[in-house]
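Limitations

Structures in this collection are predictions, not experimental determinations, and the ligand pose is part of the prediction. Treat each record accordingly. The example that follows, with nicotinamide-adenine-dinucleotide as the small molecule, is included so readers can see exactly what is and is not provided: the inputs are given verbatim, and the output is the predicted complex.
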Amino acid sequence: MSTLVLPRILESGPGSLSRLGSVAGQAGISRALIITDATMIQLGYVERALSALSEAGVAAAVFDGTEPEPTETSIIAGLDCLKSGVEGAEFDGLIAVGGGSAIDSAKALSILAVHGGRMRDYKVPRIVDELGLPVIAVPTTAGTGSEATKVAVITDPESDEKMLCMGLGYMPFGAVLDPELTYSLPKRVTADTGIDAITHAMEAYVSRKANPFSDQQALAALRLMGPNIRRVFEDPQNADAREAMLLGSTLAGIAFSNASVALVHGMSRPIGAFFHVPHGLSNAMLLPEITAWSLPSAQTRYAQCARAMGWAADGTSDAVANDILLEELKMLNADLGVPTPSGFGIEEARWRQLRPLMAEQALASGSPGNNPRIPTADEIVELYDRVWA
Ligand code: NAD
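Predicted complex:
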């Protein structure tokens, strides 16, 4: 048996931002607060979102104070803005324009606006099935898949914990997937977010919670992204490759949201929280080594990932496809300039000191328990050692 949770509307394709007003109308939104950051304003994306809303008769205002890898501090600032309302009335919906950080910020605001409290009240193991304000997501990165997940990740500024928050309440009502908004992504963000999405699809496929529905989304996502991740890095204006990566990242989001992520994500969140490594990059630092460690427990599934990405030919034996997968993951990191934690500039003494706490936080998130090979805390500490340099 599996429970599947999905958004209600996805508008997809080049130019689909023009459909934002009609999606907002379908969600019953007539007074929207756009949740975004200064970069989205500079790029003109917020202006285009505002005009699409205005054409559909939706009143809107803008909160541009979201931060990358959001802490609760920026969420509290957003709540103040939300309370001010628009045209003398309360906002009745949120529109996130940006990457996973803006989308997760909107999700958190949606819940806090209706149910009150602090984000730490809503972290796992609590499951938030209560609904907040409707959220429409307009992703501008091809990575997190947050536009189609029942997940939000918010950092507690006091404990530095990247809190995993889950439940129906975090699923956006709808999303607009316009690949043209991703052409402006800097190379580094293109690479990090692309590997994040590949990690979502792979982890969903090997997860102990995988199911026939998530398997189809994961494999379709890998087929789209395997051949295109290097293309978008080398040729950022390649329309077909950008569209494939955006669709692939959304499908990967649907896959992991309905099957869970696993050990890579569990170990990645504490690296992001303690050392301010962007989420996709910390996944990328871990993916080859954690795959090598996990592989003996799911050889056939990992082989299918290699075939779906076009890295191993159909008909290749599982053993050969497994070797190709490990080799290709290492080469992908080299080609996309992914540093080790040491190469990123993390202080070695602090890394070593924090390994037990990071292992504890990784286990507490529940994600390692979905891995095909389940680690102990000591094994996670040992894996943090292996990826160091
Ligand atoms: P991001 O949203 O943090 O964006 C990274 C940077 O890129 C920002 O400075 C942003 O302004 C800029 N940017 C975004 N789009 C751009 C564009 N089109 N052109 C130019 N610049 C652009 O990055 P992200 O990887 O999308 O999101 C990361 C966050 O999402 C993390 O907090 C992570 O934990 C979370 N996450 C959430 C889920 C989920 O299901 N909710 C899944 C994975 C990760």
